[in-house]
Write a structure and sequence with these properties.
The chain has about 250 residues and is α/β, with parallel strands linked by helices. About 40% of the residues lie in helices and about 20% in strands. It folds into two domains: about 120 residues, Rossmann fold (3-Layer(aba) Sandwich); about 110 residues, Rossmann fold (3-Layer(aba) Sandwich). Helix 1 packs parallel to helix 10, helix 3 packs parallel to helix 4 and helix 7 packs across helix 8.
Length: about 250
């Protein structure tokens, strides 16, 4: 196997919703075949009071986003209400460079990003100066409580999207796993791990393929499900996960 093609012959399944072509193209460059088979999907929460909630959001000191999905849902709410970033004289915090980039595309400045793209690191590092500051955490329905309960400032929540299982991918993943060919399955969230554990593990188990995880929280979810993450990058992004996978395969 060429050292420049460490993923030669490898099928790489991405179980998260496709947001960028970059990690897929990287798999191809490294000799592998990328396949998008998401196990979760997001749906916007639309409510009659969305416009009023947006007006209220303008009065906060900070807006907090931990996912691109939250930014996308927020963007659509802005569009329906005829608002843009100039309507929000607030500071913005983001978990992850991709989330920050999505916010910048909307015209928001991003004032804080944690060193590690994880909520538990965020709450340790985020400590804005000032008294009686108020933050609004824009989130999905499955987001944990750390940001709302562990920060020193007052935090309100606004659930702007829901994460639900995407069962349409299940048969194809089962078929690929049963071909007995080199296979890697990449997880970017505990939600995808949960869906795999419920729908796929009873059919194909957690062995016979390489498991990749973004982040220690996803890694922990895999451990709790009885699985082992064979690959996890130090920087929690899909391209870095692909690079870590290639490095691991290149050593074998």
């Amino acid at each position: 196997m060429s050292s420049k093609q460490p993923l030669c012959g490898e099928t790489v399944i991405f179980t998260s919703t496709k947001k960028s072509e970059e990690p897929y193209e990287l798999v191809r460059q490294l000799g592998g075949e990328p396949v998008s088979l998401p196990l979760i999907r997001t749906t916007d929460r639309q409510r009659d009071d969305d416009h009023a909630r947006l007006l209220q959001a303008q009065a906060y000191d900070w807006l907090i986003f931990t996912s691109q999905s939250a930014v996308a849902a927020f963007k659509r709410k802005l569009g329906r209400s005829g608002m843009d970033a100039e309507s929000f004289p607030v500071h913005v915090a983001a978990v992850g460079e991709k989330t920050a980039a999505a916010l910048r595309e909307l015209g928001f400045g991003v004032d804080f990003i944690p060193d590690v793209f994880s909520a538990d690191v965020f709450v340790k590092q985020f400590n804005p100066a000032g008294r009686a500051l108020r933050a609004l955490f824009l989130k999905g329905n499955l987001a944990g409580s750390l940001i709302s309960t562990e920060l020193s400032l007052s935090v309100d929540e606004w659930t702007v999207y829901d994460t639900v299982p995407e069962t349409a991918s299940i048969k194809r993943i089962v078929d690929l796993a049963r071909q007995d060919l080199p296979l890697s399955i990449l997880f970017a969230s505990p939600s995808a791990v949960s869906v795999f554990g419920e729908y796929l593990a009873p059919q194909i188990g957690w062995t016979g393929f390489t498991i990749g995880a973004i982040g220690h929280i996803t890694e922990r979810a895999l451990m709790e499900a009885g699985a082992h993450a064979g690959v996890m990058p130090s920087v929690y992004t899909l391209p870095e996960l692909v690079r870590a996978l290639a490095e691991s395969k290149g050593r074998n």
